[in-house]
Specification:
flat; mainly beta; 0% helix; 4-stranded mixed beta sheet; 4-stranded antiparallel beta sheet
Length: 174
């Protein structure tokens, strides 16, 4: 039997996937977002791109995003590419809902409802394999829920539709 080469992958992660804003479009958290690319069995430095096009800080396989770019963008898709391999993540803006109008005669009006936003830490996964099957491996995807800009607990129900041979461990919460 011929020995093949080791599998190659490129994984991209961020230290946060949402940028919270107040109702008046001012940032709640001004800390930069750190992005890290993890190439496996690939040589070289990652090439970065974003949609829409924004400036990234940092260098090499670690980059940063200034959260102020989200004042005019609802989301930014970040791509990392190396040796024909690519991974993408999306960072999204979340914003507090509008306050309700004041009521008449000193009574308060009814406040508006905050939006519910669900974010997956990485919505797409590639598994190493050969022509016939994937190699044994695992991956993690966090499910993150927000009501307005407040993180809330979420419950993950039954997951269905996996291909033959795939199993899922669901811890039931984010």
């Amino acid at each position: 039997a011929l020995k093949g080469s080791d599998s190659q992958t490129l994984d991209l992660y961020a230290d946060k996937y949402v940028v919270p804003f107040k109702e008046d479009n001012t940032l709640k958290d001004t800390s930069v977002i750190t992005l890290k690319a993890y190439p496996k069995n690939l040589n070289g430095t990652v090439t970065w791109s974003t949609t829409p096009s924004i400036s990234l800080g940092g260098s090499g396989n670690t980059r940063t995003i200034d959260p102020n770019v989200f004042k005019n963008n609802n989301s930014v898709v970040v791509s990392a590419t190396l040796g024909g391999y690519n991974d993408k993540i999306t960072i999204v803006k979340i914003k507090d809902g509008s306050k309700g109008a004041s009521g008449t005669n000193g009574t308060n009006g009814v406040n508006g409802d905050d939006a519910i936003t669900i974010v997956l830490s990485n919505p797409s996964h590639t598994f190493m394999g050969d022509e016939t099957k994937a190699k044994d491996s695992s991956t993690t995807c966090k499910v993150i829920a927000y009501k307005g800009t407040q993180a809330i607990a979420c419950t993950i129900g039954t997951i269905t539709g996996m291909p033959t041979g795939m199993s899922i461990t669901n811890n039931g919460t984010h």
